[in-house]
User: Fold Histidinol dehydrogenase from Nitrincola tibetensis.
Amino acid sequence: MTQVSIKRLSSSQSDFAQQLDALLAWESVSDKRVNQVVEDVITQVKARGDQALVDYTNQFDRMQAQSMAELELSTERLAKALHDLPAEQRAALEAAATRVSQYHERQKSDSWRYVEADGTHLGQQVTPMDRVGIYVPGGKAAYPSSVLMNALPAKVAGVNEIIMVVPTPDGVVNELVLAAAALAGVDRVFTIGGAQAVAALAYGTETVPKVDKIVGPGNIYVATAKRAVFGAVGIDMIAGPSEILVICDGKTNPDWIAMDLFSQAEHDEDAQSILLCPDEHYLNEVQSSIEKLLPTMERQAIIKTSLETRAALILVADLAEAAHISNRIAPEHLELSVEDPEALLPSIRHAGAIFMGRYTAEALGDYCAGPNHVLPTSGTARFSSPLGVYDFQKRSSLIMFSPEGASEMGKVASILARGESLTAHARSAEYRILD
Amino acid sequence: MTQVSIKRLSSSQSDFAQQLDALLAWESVSDKRVNQVVEDVITQVKARGDQALVDYTNQFDRMQAQSMAELELSTERLAKALHDLPAEQRAALEAAATRVSQYHERQKSDSWRYVEADGTHLGQQVTPMDRVGIYVPGGKAAYPSSVLMNALPAKVAGVNEIIMVVPTPDGVVNELVLAAAALAGVDRVFTIGGAQAVAALAYGTETVPKVDKIVGPGNIYVATAKRAVFGAVGIDMIAGPSEILVICDGKTNPDWIAMDLFSQAEHDEDAQSILLCPDEHYLNEVQSSIEKLLPTMERQAIIKTSLETRAALILVADLAEAAHISNRIAPEHLELSVEDPEALLPSIRHAGAIFMGRYTAEALGDYCAGPNHVLPTSGTARFSSPLGVYDFQKRSSLIMFSPEGASEMGKVASILARGESLTAHARSAEYRILD
Assistant:
């Protein structure tokens, strides 16, 4: 038993809205020093290319590379990592990759077109990006599952070339990460990281090809660099700490819920785990399970800090109110650990991923359920989506007017263009008006 | 006749790639002073809310407002603007709105779900955003067509509330813009602009509600503010100067092509107009048309500066090479002014909008063809798309495991989680393994 001091709230308390706001408040660090370092790194990589990459990598990752050739891994090296994997791990990784690919196949958009009565064609052409970059963190947060989750949607989208960057501080390589890269069909891997890797992908160097979009998680330097290069290339969302919100009717084994909360909390001290339940007695049971199970956890120090600084057990009036509060939170992960999750689903408006029913542990979604584990954090599910195939496809509008259509619409365009004092627009349209 | 000095290039010249790179080079201004002003404005609006908005608006737009109540336009005021419009303009605006809505209806994504053999459900729930903000510039760049193009996709997506901000410097209101807002179903309009309007939409004030996403064009202060609030809210792409690329086989009336080039050039001095043609004689004809027509244009000073600093007439070997160069450019607007545009289309990989055939003037797409006129600029069509309904919808993954499915996948997740040393993840999954 370890005593764990977790915030308790009730939706009936008069200051609940303020308490909830305070609980959720999260400001990503906007540090002038970090900005300056990142700006310098980007400037150097743009100016000195490979040499800057080699210098920074030797400096920050304590390497002794002479040239970029030493900082690229061959496809044979990746294949060897996959080949040498213990059979059980390889089978699990392959099972996960298959399910993730199958789910993502459903996300592919197709081109479409329609023809109007006068013969005018309108449509939308959907094409994959040519080349994308995937950032994979080194060190303790090096996750093979992230390689699959970032690379496979690009592969399904039909992206021609996938470039991965992964720092190897002190030369330490993660074999599982390389195996996942081989399995996901990553084309080239450079053992570089930090803002220098982001800059290389965004602007290209002699060795590292410029990509169209950069995805994948990273530390504050990586996030700051991604924000800085946004526009020159596309980026995915800049992720905050991971979160889980569990709505429980009080009938799930409290040990299960405690462990589900732990599974977010173990990511890092800033991760956030929240439980909503209409049964106060059940909240106490989960509290007891937490205190019972915590001493058995390998990452108990991280979990304890996370739970004591960021978690909350919240008493709600009923499940309808829980859904309402969930929409306010717009959680990254939402577990509906209730008897009838289908009944609750229509009330859920904002969430990255929704895990329905007592058997659907959030952890399954992290690895092998099929949907992506890269999800909008910090309430951004209000306006953004899981990483998906759509992030690696783009659309072009198609317009082909018949002479009759151009004539009729030319009249409309002419009036509107003249209303905006854009005479060249008007005359360009008017040329196509038939006599 | 006005002599116009336009750059001439040929794809056969040895330094063509470098010349093309130089022509396309565009760096958006990253001015430390602008950044500082924007940072201050955002800080003030977050701290002082309405009062900061009123102060900045009085200062920057030379207004004398006492409170935010004076800086909101009633729906009656918008309806009156629409009602008072000349019949011809109203009909044109309505025709455009109808076509834009019809096209965008085809972009709506639907939720989907599938059931696996063991009873596990996987799917994707698609929902609209709750509330979005539309920035509409005041002054010379106040375009009613932009109101339609930004508001209607949100409306089609099912967004519950659309908030528009439009500065009215010196109190000057654009009736066409208000009419377009009424027609598009904008819910509330505030006569504020600049970084202060962006900050208000991103963080909310006593009067201006916080939105989920901000779209719409603006000056460097607006663009800088959008970049700064990105993450707290969603934003659309930050637009560079407008561009057109025309691929012509040399058989279109050269006056038409000259006017199509003008229609981009008249936007502003930085706009870019490029023509690719395999017929040198035709390039000379277009040059003559340009010199003949320029003196007849209202915005001839802007057009001349734009053409002389940013345009190019480029001789290519053939249409296949033109398509190749077009993919390098990834233009915002691409006209395929050729006999058989369908034959050329499969070679086009990157473009915001593709205008096919001699009759399809780009200007039609700006107003009433149906597709959106908010398009990726400066080569960003490599990784981004026209503004669309998809920009106002977001997705949530759905996962509902059957007990059997959870048991099988729990085994896979357990192996992978332990490979990542995430024991709580593993144990959370293992609890659901059936005996």
